[in-house]
Design brief:
86 residues, mainly alpha, 3 helices
C-alpha cells in the first residue's frame, strides 16, 4: 500500500484551487443566471470550499508557529495582519 506524502493530504496544498473555485461560484451567483436549485447547490458547495480554505489557513498558521518555536508553538507570537480586528 503506497504511502501518501504529507503534502498530498494537507488542505494547504489545495487552498488556491478551492479559493479559485469559490470565486467562480460567487461570480456565477452574482450574475443571477442560476435557478433557485442551482443557487442552493452553489451556495452549499461554496460553504464547503470556504471551510476547506479556513482549515488550510489554520494549518498554515500552525506550521509557521511550529517553525518559529518548535519547542513551544503555543507561546509563539500570533500573526495578525494589519487592519485585523481580533
Amino acid at each position: 500500500m503506497p504511502k501518501k506524502s504529507p503534502n498530498e493530504t494537507s488542505p494547504v496544498v489545495h487552498f488556491e484551487q478551492s479559493l479559485e473555485e469559490l470565486e467562480q461560484l460567487v461570480e456565477k451567483m452574482e450574475a443571477g443566471d442560476l435557478s433557485l436549485e442551482q443557487s442552493l447547490s452553489a451556495y452549499e458547495r461554496g460553504v464547503g470550499l470556504y471551510r476547506q480554505c479556513q482549515q488550510a489557513l489554520e494549518q498554515a498558521e500552525l506550521r509557521v508557529r511550529l517553525l518559529s518555536d518548535p519547542a513551544r508553538p503555543d507561546t509563539a507570537e500570533r500573526f495578525d495582519p494589519p487592519g485585523h480586528d481580533g
